[in-house]
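Appendix B, example 12.
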Amino acid sequence: MSSVFDKIRHLADQVEKGNPADLDDRARACRATKESVLDAKALVEAVRVQLSEGWHGGAGESALTSLNDFKKNRDDQAHDLEESAKSFEVVRDALAKAQGDARSHRADADALEKKLDGVWNDLAHGKGNIVFAWAEDKALKARALVVLADLERIVVGYDAVLLAEGLKLRNKTGQVWELAGSEKRNPAEIAAIMLREIPGLAELVAKDPRLKVAVLTGNWELLLQNREIAQKIYDYLGFKYVADGDYYTTGEHSVQSFLGWHDFYDKLEKLIGADLDATGDDGDNMEFTDPKTGKQYRLELWKGSYGFGGAFGGEVGFYTREPGSGDISGYYHAAQGDDQIKVTQTIYNKNDGHVYFTNDGQGADGSDKKHFWNLAIRTDPDVKASELAQRATIEVRDTGMRDRMYDEMTRWAAAHPDQNLKVTKTTDDPPALSYTWGEK
């Protein structure tokens, strides 16, 4: 059986296998590639400007539009590469800190083991007595167990950073995907890592009587005032507080991005204390198919109360399913890449028009505000679900998708007149529509 000292050394060895310099190289490679991409964009733009002076008519305009799209794609790639460089740097810094801590804990363990060996060597040479040696043995091993527990906490903390930043990297498109470098974690692995965090969270709560009360009363605002708890909740579940608006939203890299959407999730709302209006309540969902690719899409809308009446808000979710993917009925993946949508969602009182808050895309990675899920929830027990209405503007990648979404939303609205869903096409550039839901 391995001793506690062997376990400490083994854990330290695992941490020290990583190389911060490799991560630094990847960050630099991302930025170097970004500069090449921007150079290519500049060249395309110069060509487009020159050709625009002589190209006219349908074919010419189409070619110029393609060049413009290519230029925009280079901007998107450059943005992804910069964000990826930042992720590699975050992991690099976390690894360097974990390695420094691991070396320090290994040194502590070596010193304790040396002292323990000295106790038994002294006894072998007639110094001291067996009772003293036994007591010192237990005390030193107990201190070593504390070192081991702290080292395990450090490793789990680094793993949390690796998970959060890895999710961001793996959700990038194009060349950035290859730079992610590690196999996609499955939900079971994520759940295991989350469960490993429970003792640490419990220790934080135990140290602060106010946090105990917050847990017992479900006071999320008080819990999230603790930076460590707030960071862990964001790392694993993606939830964070938006001070400018006084609501909670969620990031793209959350566990929910792996879980996608299944019809039975709506069946669970009572278990989490939610009372929601949902567009798929009766099994009639807003779904449409891209005629060119056969890819299927689902738009989900929710509004109402959460946390057994202690909070309220709304959600707009967008999900996809590949043709012939064999996915079980009712399951869709969280929209990624170009399929993601930019949503500005407002929750307001349908009786007097009072606006509670607006989420204009907070929670999305980067500055494009595109996400698979626009969520906004405020804690307030005095707002009733029956008083809420929702309005939103949705921007999509092209007018074809916008028109199919519009057609499906108007079909659903006609089939559910009691829901008072009104949809309007707004702009073609960007392709967008807007709606109100729940007004009298």
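The longest strand covers residues 296-306. Residues 174-187 have pLDDT under 50 and may be disordered.
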